[in-house]
Every structure is written in structure tokens, then in C-alpha cells.
Amino acid sequence: MISIRSWAEMTRALASPIDADLIRLLALRREQLLEQEGYDLGELAHFIVAEPGDALAAIEVAAGIPLATNMIDGSKQGEPGFTASFEYVERHSGAWFEAVTIVSDDGFGLVLLVPDRPDIDPALLGLVRDHA
After folding, report:
1. Cβ atoms 91, 72 nearer than 8 A
2. Cα angle, residue 97 at apex, residues 6 and 14 outer, rounded to 5°
3. Is pTM beyond 0.90 here?
């Protein structure tokens, strides 16, 4: 998994040999967040990029929030009526899902980026597919 919590980490991620569609999406989000002058990225958002071999449980640990549990009613993925706590999930061109969760009253957000690939944890992929 790739964890991005600062402008320096974002710069490193954008310079790394990752998927071109992911680079475009990260670059777009960077430009949008740079409009919030005077803030470090870590004050605005935490980006997590899922990779093959990353289990949903490990992503939840890195995120610090239960993605497969509704934070309001406690329902869990797979239970009838379950709805994740995402603000939105969008499927982008290039087969990437972007799931955003606002985690505090100041607007700090978790941005989860998940490739739509068969080697991604089925529970994680199902979670974002079901809410896109």
C-alpha cells in the first residue's frame, strides 16, 4: 500500500513508477488541494493507494477507521442494509475507484484509491464496487 500524508510523500508518489491513470488522478487532487494555501497535505487528507496483497483489514489499520463498518449504526459489510460511511465512491477511467470519507468536523478526509483488478483483495474491491 502507498500512504501519502504530506506534500513530500505526494511528490515521491508522483515521481514513482506507478500506473499512469493513478498519476493523473493524484496530480489532479494535488492541484485541487494546493488551492488551500498555508496547509500541509497532512492537515487536509490522507491518501491510501491499495496494491495487490493489501488486505482490507490492513487498509483499515492504516486508515485508522473501520471502512467495512458503518460508523453510525455499526452495521458491517455483508449484513443486510449495510452502507459504508464513504461520502462518495467514484469509478474513474483507467479502472480506479476513489472512495472519500470525511473523518473530522474540520473536513479532514481519507482518500482511498483502489484499482479494479483481480489481484486486489475481494473484500476491499467489493466494498468500493458496491458503493460506486
Report:
1. no
2. 35
3. yes
The yes-or-no verdict on residue 85 having pLDDT over 90 is yes
The H or E element containing residue 1 is none
Closest listed residue to residue 110, CA positions, set 99, 123, 121:
99
* CA 132 – CA 40 distance, rounded (Å): 29
Q: Which residues pair with 111 in a beta bridge?
A: 47, 100
Residue type, 47: F
Longest dimension (CA), the chain: 44
Class of residue 81 by CB neighbours under 10 A (exposed 0-12, middle 13-18, buried 19+): exposed
Could you read off the pLDDT of 57-83 as tens digits, one per residue? 999 999 999 999 999 999 999 999 999
